[in-house]
């Protein structure tokens, strides 16, 4: 079994230990899609690359982008413990993204990144709703 396969299976088992629902998996591409709505996680994508674990979840689409909205997002990035807000190429879709090096990655680090998203959604929910209007 390749090292990449071992890491993929390790991450998958960690997620199952924490009772995440794996709604999609592609072992060849090393992709998982997970859900745990009680933690604010819905369709989070995890990709195991050669050197990093990439975690992304679409959060919302900005209906009327302004400099003020982008400023608020950048300022909120400072408060996020793990990960950050990122924009897609259109500049309208807001995504939570975090990466971890796989060479010495631990279960608590992966869970901390995922938990960070749950905290973010809880703390910033009303502002995110306003940005979608």
Automatic annotation (TrEMBL):
Pfam family name, one: CesT_Tir_1
Protein name: Molecular chaperone Tir
